[in-house]
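User: For my dataset I need records formatted as: sequence, then structure tokens, nothing else. Please produce one.
Assistant:
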Amino acid sequence: MIDPQGAVLRGLKQAFARHRIALAAKTALAAGLAWALAPLIPGPAAQYPYYAPLGALITMHPTVADSARNGFQSLLGLGLGIGAAFAVAANADANSLTIALVVGIGVLIGGLPKMGAARDWAPIAALFVLVIGGHRADEFSAAYIVQMALGVGIGFAVNWMILPPLHFEAVGAAFVRHRHALGDQLEDMATAMTESWPPDHEEWAEREGVLTATASEVRQAVGQAELSARANPRRERRSRDLRRDLEDVRARDLPDPGHHGGPGERDLGGQLRDVRTP
């Protein structure tokens, strides 16, 4: 039975984890800086300062590499959406038909391969330019993309310069869980090798799933840590051989627990009990 109170506490613990608090603080800082600098942009762009904090917000991600990729893809989507809106707005004003048309075109553009975040921003930009820009679509479009670009740049700079996240701690925690699950399995194997065969251990089937899950957690943690290290200036100060971590996981993979070993394998029973380390 699911413990509602425990689930709530785990959710709160995850929401207020140290890395989430750091991300929230940096996002707030980036949005504030973007809002302060947006009015300094010359020309009509100064009339639309609220797009700069939005650009900062969409750029802030748990890793520097994600920030760069999502910021670039968002600006790409804006540019494509603006182009679609201009193609329609040049021939008609905003109405039900033209709005439906630009949104449809934007969604189709977003379906192109490797668009990422651009798939969401293409229809949004097209809609904004047609509805808000109106007869001043060119002026609004320039202000829109300039302010968003300012926010994207500020967001990336803040994430890159101020404690750029490295998710190495999660790798160690995942390894601990996998090691304990592996140790429990090996202890059962050691016991079974001294019993009559085939051994009757119902827990093996369940524990095999636990081993698979914990090994998957390690691989995911290593992948996230590797991503967080890309373009990260803190990587050199906190180096970790992530490839070796993955090799360790593969080396720990176990054979089928129901495998009937030969006489030589039975002699390993005493040795397997010593495999588990604290």
